[in-house]
Design goal:
Elements: H1 3-45, H2 50-77, H3 81-87, H4 89-108, H5 112-119, H6 125-147, H7 159-178, H8 192-203, H9 213-216, H10 219-234, H11 236-249, H12 265-270, H13 274-296, H14 306-321, H15 342-357, H16 359-366, H17 368-376, H18 384-407, H19 418-430, H20 446-458, H21 471-486, E1 492-493, E2 496-497, H22 500-527, H23 529-532, H24 539-550, H25 565-580, H26 582-590
Antiparallel strand pairs: 1-2
Length: 608
């Protein structure tokens, strides 16, 4: 009897119990995952006595063992084990790591990863150990939730509602975690409203903060903020949910319009493996940015442990690429320790620019298959959407940099070298989508503040981590206006005719943004009257704050900490709607779409 026949006999013998055992394991896996996350919250969120901590770690080790056991069981029940290993290669790699680390802990009482980090000279081991454990759990739990679609209720919800609920769930989890005592260095815990505001700002990659990140939060709190930025910026949970729904329910193409803030419809339908591709590219870009930052800190982090320096690099790289703008320096990148570190500023500028450019454009520009195709077939060019994202983004950066240099030459740029003025001008123009600043925004003069409001309103490109009406909306509206002025028959852009449905969507986004910002500014003028009573504060400060929130930018003239409770609620709603997308909210509130082929007679009226 060869091995294949032996395997077949085992599978036949196990077949009767396959559904029952695997179904039970799925349920147990979800229960263990939820319990493990709860235990981690207790372990990291509360101060623990040694005996309590040991008991919690025992459960951590038990859950690791359970994950390995259930994976082996699934492998044994599968009729094609090699195919199963190929399908679940990432999960298999995690299991191998868990087995190795478990054996190391059993025989040596220590983890191999800790010994490796010590061998290369890192001192802040506990930080990496914390990240390692949290990363293990999140990876495993997420893989199980995405794979266990049959365990979740088969409820047919509006995709826009599911999209919004995923963000609400992430914000809620972040709020609860940030309220735990160990997340701050202050006595007690963070208040509910401030924790909710911080979680919303990080998840919506906005960056408006009511407290100083580096002095208020402990390392554990900063890790939570980093995780919220990464997940919110990549839209990981929402995008993963759509992949699961697409495979389970067979969503129609029309329903995919609700994810216009993350990826366009054609790309979404073209590749079932897009989620993995997005993750790999984003992590690679962020890793490269972290490495360059680590080499450019100079004397800014002297006296800081090596592990902490790496954490600073990773945090700022993730924050930059996801256009979050949250920094671990008081006063942001305008801090005296790094305000003249132009190598760091250019690194952040490049990360922010590509984050705002969008993954669709990045794939089109830099994917090796597309590069080889364009080299072998020179008549092929970059795609229509990529042209809009690239050319309009470069144009906006150039316009903003020139304006900043001219308007602030004797203001915030005074005293800088010509290269410093150029760097700062390009930085503030490029980071109009991220919220990073290398000068005091409160000291910027009114003309440039007004232009920054316009640039923040426009925002980044579609499928990016930034907000605003997007460059695609701006380009289509401008092309339509040009058609009207020139009395052309069709709306044309880059030698392509823009269909009516895109024009309608662009004007809808523009109108929603105008109305949303106007209503919010009106409400802020009522709730934040105490800010307007200051001699150095005007309505422009409230307008700047609101547009920054709605565009998920994060720049502020310094009034965020002054907001009243109602003002914080208004800003939070603006950040949330700006992140999930105005069309998404409209689809969710609009309910089920009803198609009709009735066409009424045309009406005519004077316009203008």
């Amino acid at each position: 009897m060869n091995f294949q026949e032996f395997r077949e006999r085992i599978n036949v013998g196990l077949y009767q119990s396959k559904d029952r055992v695997l179904g039970g394991l799925k349920i147990l896996n979800l229960l263990v995952s939820a319990s493990a996350l709860f235990v981690l919250a207790l372990y990291y969120g509360f101060p623990n006595e040694s005996e309590t901590a040991i008991q919690l770690l025992v459960f951590v080790k038990f859950s690791f063992g359970f994950y390995v056991l259930q994976y082996i069981t699934r492998l044994l029940y599968d009729f094609q084990p090699l195919d199963f290993l190929r399908r679940t290669w990432f999960e298999a790699a995690v299991m191998v790591v868990l087995v190795i680390e478990g054996a190391s802990d059993l025989f040596t009482g220590d983890l191999l990863i800790i010994r490796f980090i010590q061998s290369v000279g890192f001192n802040s081991i506990s930080d990496f150990y914390t990240i390692l454990i949290q990363g293990y759990f999140f990876t495993i739990v997420l893989a199980e939730l995405l794979r266990g679609g049959r365990v979740l209720p088969r409820i047919r919800l509006n995709p826009a509602v599911i999209f919004i609920m995923s963000f609400l769930g992430l914000i809620t989890i972040g709020t609860v975690l940030l309220m735990l005592p160990e997340m701050t260095v202050q006595p007690g815990s963070m208040g509910f409203l401030d924790a909710l505001f911080t979680s919303t700002s990080a998840t919506c990659v906005t960056g408006l903060m009511v407290v100083d990140t580096v002095t208020f939060f402990s390392f554990k709190g900063q890790v939570v903020i980093l995780a919220l930025i990464q997940l919110g910026g990549l839209n990981l949970i929402a995008f993963g949910s759509f992949l699961v729904l697409a495979s389970k329910f067979g969503l129609g193409v029309r329903q995919h319009d609700v994810i216009e803030d993350f990826v366009n419809r054609d790309t979404f339908n073209a590749s079932s493996g897009l989620l993995g591709k997005v993750l790999m590219w984003c992590l690679a870009i962020e890793a490269g940015g972290a490495l360059i930052m680590h080499l450019t800190w100079g004397e800014a982090l002297n006296g800081t442990a090596s592990g902490r320096q790496w954490f600073y690099s990773v945090f700022h790289s993730v924050s930059a690429f996801n256009n979050a703008g949250i920094s671990l320096f008081t006063d942001g990148l305008a801090n005296a320790a790094i305000d003249g570190n132009y190598a760091l500023h250019w690194t952040v500028t490049v990360l922010v620019f590509f984050g705002a450019l969008g993954m669709v454009a990045i794939f089109d520009l830099f994917d090796m298959a597309r590069l080889r195709e364009r080299m072998s077939q020179p008549w092929k060019h970059i795609g229509f959407a990529t042209k809009i994202a690239l050319y309009f983004s470069l144009g906006l950066v150039a316009f903003g940099a020139a304006a900043f240099w001219l308007l602030e030459a004797d203001g915030t740029l005074a005293g800088m070298s010509p290269f410093g003025q150029l760097t700062t001008s390009v930085f503030q123009s490029a980071t109009r989508t991220s919220g990073f600043n290398t000068v005091d925004i409160g000291a910027v003069r009114v003309p440039m503040l007004f232009l920054l409001i316009i640039l923040m309103f426009i925002g980044s490109s579609s499928s990016s981590t930034g907000g605003g009406i997007k460059t695609s909306t701006l380009s289509i509206v401008m092309a339509d206006v040009w058609r009207t002025v020139r009395n052309l028959d069709h709306v044309q852009l880059f030698k392509r005719t823009v269909p009516e449905v895109l024009r309608s969507r662009a004007y809808s986004v523009l109108l929603f943004f105008l109305v949303g910002n106007t209503v919010a500014i009106f409400l802020l003028s009522i709730t934040e009257s105490h800010i307007l009573e200051f001699d150095d504060r005007t309505l422009l400060d409230l307008i700047f704050e609101e547009v920054s929130a709605f565009g998920t930018v994060g720049l502020s003239t310094g009034i965020t900490a002054m907001l009243s409770p109602m003002g914080k609620v208004i800003i939070m709603l603006s950040m949330f709607v700006g992140r999930v997308g105005t069309l998404t909210v409209a689809y969710a509130l609009g309910g089920r779409s009803v198609q009709t082929h009735i066409k009424y007679p045309e009406g005519h009226t004077m316009v203008g």
